[in-house]
Amino acid sequence: MVTDAVGPLYFLKAALQAVIDALRAAGHTVVGPTIEQDAIVYRDIEHVTQLPVGWTDEQGPGYYRLRRRDDDAWFGYVVGPHSWKRFLFPPTLKVSSASRTDGNWDFHTPEPPQTHYAFLGVRACELAALRVQDRVFLDGAYQDPHYRAMRTNAFVIAVNCTQAASTCFCTSMNTGPRCTAGFDLALTELDDGFLVEVGSAEGAEILARVETRAPTEAERILGDKVRQQAVDQITRTLDTNDLRNRLFANLQHPRWQEVGARCLSCTNCTMVCPTCFCHSVTDLRDLNQERVDRERHWDSCFAPDFSSMNGGMVRPDTPARYRQWLTHKLASWHDQFGTSGCVGCGRCITWCPVGIDITEEAAVIAGGSTE
């Protein structure tokens, strides 16, 4: 796992294939952005031709479209429906199994995987999301062995944003758009190559396998300029000052009913969120009742049955479920993990079918306004 130290700055002359080859030679499975079903998603890649070169995304509340750019930028888009949690905390995972042997049951826990991922194209908000998930799965009394194995072996190549979507609000959450920690290498794309920051010894080792040079002063200045572009484009904000207490002071606000009437309880926001970790466990037995597999799978606090107990549902309607999600994400997450559960990536806004905006709802409810 990477540290928070940032080392020297280099210039890489558009040689991403050499970086990918070096990572693969070092035993990493490279995962990066590619286009699938008219969206930018994360998949295993072997060649730069699989990257979404020359494409960008247009995003708004309940709106996402890809379109061609006027140039051949490698990373000229923001974020899509995928997050890196799907590789560290997969949607479905077998956590144990039991087999009948001579009338007795033999229980088995799978060994942690040995896959060494290299994540290419991780944005600052996503680095923040990884840190949040680390607190959930690694920093408590009980660690998740699968997550620990995958996270420890992961190599992270971050990419500084040079543009923002209308749904981004990472500046309000102090999570971006510049990558400052938690990476092995961080790229800033220029017209003819990349500025590369080194964040770990392993990052320096991989970079040593490709041809680089020291950046010129003009390239350093241009790097600052293109990174500032993303900052200047961010217009959506969220006032986080005492937000936890302001939300808890308005648990009976009428806006909960209003937003609940709009919400479809479809779970989209939690599925695309890079930090949500709700899950359920299911036992699956074979037809002859000789084997049982226990699987963990993603779930959502928006699912009606998720809060079901022997006395009934704790949160029986959509307004209650929306209130649980928003107050946990922005308020009680601080009590559990010492940080907000939101990194300002804006995915929940983009992928909500009815365009519910978490920043708007939080502003009205936490402000006490009934507008």
Task: Describe what you observe in this structure.
With 371 residues, this protein is of the alpha+beta class. The chain is 32% helix and 24% strand. Strands 3-2-8-9-10-11-1-12 form an eight-stranded mixed β-sheet, with helices on both faces. The radius of gyration is 22 Å and the shape is globular. Mean pLDDT is 94; it is low at 1-5.
Keywords:
371 residues; alpha+beta; 8-stranded mixed sheet; 4-stranded antiparallel sheet; 13 helices; 16 strands; globular; disordered N terminus
Number of strands: 16
Secondary structure category? alpha+beta
Fraction in beta strands: 15-25%
In the sheet with the most strands, the strands line up as: 3-2-8-9-10-11-1-12
Would you list the SSEs in sequence order as H and E? EHEEEEHEEEHHEHEEHEHHHHEEEEHHH
Mean pLDDT: 94
**Residue share in helices?**
25-40%
The helix tally amounts to 13
Query: Quick one: overall form?
Result: globular
Largest sheet: 8 strands, mixed
Please compute the radius of gyration using only Cα atoms. Answer: 22 Å
Give the low-pLDDT segments: 1-5
What separation lies between the terminal Cα atoms? 46 Å
Concise summary:
The chain contains 13 helices and 16 strands. It has helices at residues 16-25, 85-88, 124-137, 145-152, 170-173, 201-207, 217-233, 243-248, 255-262, 268-272, 318-337, 347-350, 358-367, and strands at 9-12, 29-36, 39-44, 55-60, 63-68, 92-101, 104-108, 117-122, 155-159, 185-190, 193-198, 212-213, 279-285, 291-298, 308-309, 312-313.
